[in-house]
Design brief:
The structure is a homodimer. Chain A is mainly alpha-helical. In chain A, 68% of the residues lie in helices and 2% in strands. The first copy, chain A, has a two-stranded antiparallel ribbon with strand order 1-2. At the A-B interface, helix 3, helix 5, helix 7, helix 8 and helix 9 of A face helix 3, helix 5, helix 7, helix 8 and helix 9 of B.
Amino acid sequence: MSELADRSGVPIPTIKFYLREQLLPRGQLSSRTQASYDDSHLRRLRLVRSLVEVAGLRLEVVRRVLAAVDDEAMTRHDVLGRAHSSLSLSPTAPASSEDLDQVETSLEQWGWKLHDQSPLPAALAQALLALDSLGHPMSDEALEAYAKAAVAVASVDVSQLPVDRSDAVETAVVGTLLREPVLLILRRMAQEVRSGQSQGQ
Amino acid sequence: MSELADRSGVPIPTIKFYLREQLLPRGQLSSRTQASYDDSHLRRLRLVRSLVEVAGLRLEVVRRVLAAVDDEAMTRHDVLGRAHSSLSLSPTAPASSEDLDQVETSLEQWGWKLHDQSPLPAALAQALLALDSLGHPMSDEALEAYAKAAVAVASVDVSQLPVDRSDAVETAVVGTLLREPVLLILRRMAQEVRSGQSQGQ
């Protein structure tokens, strides 16, 4: 277990907690006091950490994602979709059905097809409503420019996903959440750079 | 004052609070119980609301931004930069000087020049370190793709800024913060769309 802790960077008490909560399978007993762990444990441990610590998911949600990873009947894409929609966004008030219709229209125009239970269209409608209500509505052109940029970064994200389902889910969870601040910080930098250029300082 | 509340959407008790805190100048007294407010009050009120409620800035920071807006000796670009760097990012631990050097090198390669006190390079170094430490480092190529996308959205943001300084700061604050969720949600949608395409569903 101390080797597992070393290789994963996860402290032993945390590993013990994951074992107790059955998020991590027990190792093969090699003696009465020693259990051996292999690469499958290391991989599962990394995935659990990304779901618990990076994504901050409740344990019951983590269990559902792990069950999907282990369900051989599901495709890798379905497993990724399941993990992806477990990732929470900032809490938002519900948007009206009219706002939602507008979002659906844009998605259709762009040819974007999401799974039926996706929380994202309602979240987008809500985010756009917040801008509207402060008198700064986003034009269709601006939204489309954002969508194009989103496709560009998402293509990089998705192209780098590992083939293995468990690794893919871990990478998707960590990459989706921890690359968010990178994108937002770069956008703020670029705003400053562009603002300087547009005024010639 | 009730007309001001109507036109701005800011409740009267909030307006009274801003007046008491001297964030909003008093109106012209037209009688002993009536004061009249003009467009300059409405504009200042919108700006204060964006700084207090949208950006969640402390009142002393709001006062500093307002002072910059009112300081005729500062260029519009400087005022925008001042407002921009007041906007907080998620709290982060300090990055090492080595991490920071790497970020500075990238910025130089891209020709991005930020103002000297910008907190953004350190924030970016910290965000990249978080990815590193979880075993998901971001490649230079991926970072550059993100930077390009950031320029695309920032160009849209900056091109739509009003000429008036006060309006420009308000739009920059609201647009910078409230368009962040829009971009992040679109990125998650695009990830799902791309993941579906790369597997042919």
